[in-house]
Amino acid sequence: DGGGRPGEALPAGGLSAPCPPGKELAVGVPGAGPGGLPAGGAGGGGAGGWGPGRAGGCRGMGAGPGRGGCLRGALSAPCPPGKALALQVQVDGSQLSARPGVRWFKGKWLELGTKSGIRFQCSETFDQDKKVYIFELLIGKVVIGDRGDYRCEVTGKEKSDMCTFSIDVEGLGLIKTWALLVGGGFDSPLACPREVQVEEKKKKKKDEEDDAFPPEIWELLKGVTKKSEYERIAFQYGITDLRGMLKRLKKAKVEVKKSAAFTRKLDPAYQVDKGNKIKMVVEISDPDLPIKWYKNGQELKPSAKYVFENVGKKRILTINKCTLADDAAYECAVADEKLFTELFVKEPPVLITKGLDDHQVFVGDRVQLEVEVSEEGAQVMWMKDGVELTRDTAFKYRFKKDGKKHYLIINEATKEDTGLYRVMTNGGQSEGELVVEDKQLEVLQDIADLTVKAAEQAEFKCEVSDEKVTGKWYKNGVEVRPSKRIHITHKGRFHKLVIEDVRPEDEADYTFVPDGFALSLSAKLNFLEIKVEYVPKQEPPRIHLDCSGKTAENTIIVVAGNKVRLDVPITGEPAPTVSWMKGDKVGAGAETWAPGGRGLCGEWLFTDTEGRARVEVHPDESSFVIDSAERGDEDTYCITVTNPVGQDSAVLHIKVVDVPDPPEAVRITSVGEDWAILVWDPPKYDGGNPITGYLMERKKKGSMRWMKLNFEVYGDTTYESTRMIEGVLYEMRVFAVNAIGVSQPSHNTKPFMPIAPTSEPTHLTLEDVTDTTATLKWRPPDRLGAGGIDGYLVQYCLEGCEWGGLGLVERCGFTVKGLPTGQKILFRVIGVNIAGQSAPATMGQPVTIREIQPKIRLPRQLRQTYIKKVGEQVNLLIPFQGKPRPKVTWMKDGRPLDPKEVSIRTSDLDTILFIRSAARHHSGQYQLSVQIENMEDQATIQIRVVEKPGPPVAVQVKEVWGFNVLLEWQPPKDDGNSEITGYTIQKADKKTMEWFTVYEHNRLTRCTISDLVMGNEYSFRVYSQNICGLSDTPGAATPVPHPWPPLGIIFKPLDYQEHDFRMAPRVLTPLIDRTVVAGYSTALNCAVRGHPKPKVIWMKNHVEIREDPKFLMKNSQGVLTLHIRKPSPFDAGTYSCLAVNELGEALTECKLDVRVPQ
């Protein structure tokens, strides 16, 4: 709007300034008076409003108090390409002591100046009457690359301001001229019919060129993807100018057409978190037009997933509960026009809900590492010892997914597979250790020698630790083959060889050899021949054993679980009655077995086929059988045979050996950062054989995987377990081992956590001391560890004595009471947590227990002269010490302080001197005294209050010669209570009266000014300077005319032509075809040279890439880089880089292939 009401402020949204073709445009900002109002009023010309012309500007540098009043918001200036454009700013210089500095910027950082090219010309003038600086930026031959935002920054010594402009180079046709002036009026726009006719001729010529080819040919050419198709189409339709056709086609492809159907387009890309919903909004020109939505080329239909909304002219597509399947390219079509966009679905962090367990396997075993994550179908990465595992690098690894569970499978483990395995997701990681050991086979039950009779059954049985181990049986070194009479079985850990109907030729040595192990088990089969002798019918009963006799004993050792069979030959006529008795009841008849009925004392009778322990009766022998020996079967057994002729008896002792009981009282006695001490008691029952050692295992709490800690038996009952992770709960158990085998596991230890004591406390200091107390303070340890800290232990001792401790202190401070007065005492503090005590933090020097003498702790900055400017606050905080509270006294130059000008506040630990507004008379020496009875400490503080100096005096021109002037002056009478650090000299031509700085920080009281113009009259002024700055007023010298040079001297400038450095863009390094993996960010690089600096346009499939968050474009010294963040298969295609300046353009292309990992 050109005019306004008086006193009305301009709007903050920006102004529009159209320009006719071929004319120059001056855009400026009206100055603002105090309060933000325009410097002039409104309306109709005159001194109060807007007016015509190319002047305009920013009257901000002296417009009012504080910052100047530039209009907030941008000025929009459309201009056709190829024409000139001028941007103009005016600055009020009535209150400026010197010429302000001006800098022009394009965009945010690009500064325009002499290095930007000859098209950008900066100029400045000074209106002596109005005291106004006029700064102008002239852009010759505006090109498309000149569009954008421009900024002008004006900076003075104490004030600054800026204004912004926006240039649009795409506007054509009749453009009006606006002039913004300070103190002018408003005039109607100027019409330029000649330029309009020129534009219409160009447009008509362009239409004629477009008519040279039928429209269907252009549509056919725009759809071509292969370059070879261009020649075929040109030959088919009789087009001879192939090069011209390609140039016009190239321009047609990059031409941005304004949409007729859409008034608001889709964004280049959308991003949404997985599970959330996203809305895509377009606005169409006609609400009756039908609209269709497509996903990857497939039309979308309304559903609960896809919701279509019509709100006026807005068309909204809502996608509910977005999944990874919704990450695709979307298309909106109205009639023949289409809009394209992409949707990126961001996955939430994948967390590990169940981590890896430690595994301990043998060579050749199958290993399966399992982890469970929070999302199904999530991507995980497996690593071994920090190296990623893939199918390409190691074919032995197999990866498997099952819902939320992921598996790493090793079919046949080798010792090289031992290591630390790690699985990583984008939200966490887990580690597990795999230990692969050589196979070690343990014999749990050896085979025993057998003695059998003819036609009986012989059974050899052994047990090994591995159920999968197979083996072979040998007879006297010859492999035994199964037959009808010989049976070989393998069930679990047990291997059996059964021989039916034993014959004399079966007597031999039998051996079992496990496959793959250097181990063999041997036993002998003895064949018992039966000799038939004639026995008289009347014969006393007799037991035929080597141990016959009532007092003889024979010990039989049997392994628990094995079968016991005692075959006792007996004779007697008539057939004797056999009784078996056990233990202390021998002779008392307490437990008697008799075939066919109860014993003499009524004990339980075992029949031939009943019970675990039974008696078998044969014609010439009695057999006592226990099918599976138990620990309770160990005792003394007595067999008694009786007939009418007499009685005989024999005693046998059965000893049952077994694996020992589990160890008892398994416990953890101490822990460290990665270790723990395990202690246990030996088992009460050793299984009948001495304990040979122990085996230990551990696991993480909650896991089911136990890991062995030793493979060789360990003889002691105390074991140190290492290589544990601090802060993780563990459990441990112990097995006892004897010659028979391994016991059952002991009870698990209580869950424990490897933790280490903390480091020593830090910054131990003495805060206060009296005649009987000392107050200590410290800070927590630097390293607490997983155990945290439970408290602190404070200890003290006299020099040369032992340390004495106090109770546990929770806070980082403690007052030790009841100390002997005058003694020197050492103090130390120890951190305590569940892991124990830390190293002590000890004070370096002993503390003397007595009242503190007065002492002033003067800050370092007050030990030298303290300087403040006039008007500033003086606030000095000076700490001191002393017990009891000392008396504090302040003096200045030996006299007491005036409480009206200086405030003093004193506490137990410090004193404060405060001056609200410093003046020159506050300078001087301040004495501080701290006194306790007859003890006193003093300190002196030097304060100097300074201000700006006065102007130099007696400034005069001493001599003038050639192009030079000698200027001298005297130092100022008032140096501002600070030494003069230098002088600033300025000159001004009488014609313009613009002051320019010649010298700054000149130390001497004279200087020589050179490079003056012959015949001009100059004025000079000098400012004095100290640490507060320049003096407010300068010392001025009278104007001095500069003499003309002697006649006869003529300057002839050299005749030469300036070199033209301009050049069209040229590709130095082209783009290269690339193949990348989906999900891993990549970058495309090329190098381009050109002057002026070309504008760079990146395109994908010949469509310009604009402000897309997926792409990041960089330009560093001509090296162009396009970063693509986590590309997907939809990002594959042809990428182009186009560099354009006023002299031409350059194009380079490449193909990007995105591969999805299998």
TrEMBL record:
GO molecular function, one term: actin binding
A GO cellular component annotation in the UniProt record: M band
CDD domains (alphabetical): FN3, Ig, Ig_C5_MyBP-C, Ig_Titin_like
Pfam entry (one): THB
Key words of the record: Actin-binding, Cell adhesion, Immunoglobulin domain, Muscle protein, Repeat, Thick filament
Fibronectin type-III domain location: 662-758, 760-852, 951-1046
GO biological process: cell adhesion; sarcomere organization
Domain Ig-like: 260-336, 348-435, 439-511, 854-942, 1065-1148
SMART domains named in the record: FN3 (SM00060), IG (SM00409), IGc2 (SM00408)
Gene3D superfamilies: Immunoglobulins
InterPro entries: FN3_dom, FN3_sf, Ig-like_dom, Ig-like_dom_sf, Ig-like_fold, Ig_I-set, Ig_sub, Ig_sub2
Protein family according to the UniProt entry: Belongs to the immunoglobulin superfamily. MyBP family.
Protein name: Myosin binding protein C2
Gene (UniProt): MYBPC2
